[in-house]
Design a protein that fits this description.
By secondary structure, this protein is mostly helical. The protein has a domain of about 90 residues. The chain contains 4 helices and no strands. Helix 1 packs across helix 2. It is flat and about 80 Å long. It starts with a helix and ends in an 18-residue tail after the last helix. About 10% of the residues are buried.
Length: about 130
Amino acid sequence: MIIYGVAFLAFCTLAGIFVGELLGKLIGVPANVGGVGIAMMLLIFLGSYLHKRGILDATSEKGVAFWSAIYIPVVVAMAAQQNVYGALSGGPMALLAGTLAVVLGFALVPVLSRVGQKKPDAVDVTPLTKSPR
């Protein structure tokens, strides 16, 4: 059933938040430390484990695949919202750092897009007629 995907996502999210809060307390930071990342890793590894063991039926796997695909953009949007609140309360230095990071990211897009491309080959100069051997 597709509803298992929702329950699985909820479990991973709650476990990740719990572990993130626990890590924050252990290192003395009054915040969630890596809870979202832990939740995503749980979603990936636990989903893979259950799939390999054959515990999830095909319909459940479809639900997990759907929520796995939608989970990351939703969580990134939530984290970005928190970062904006933190930047606004952090003062001008935080705003400057965020602005510079965005500008640098935009500036590097053309550079990074060229990294994986093949260089154009030299013009093929094979003769149109056969040459004697």
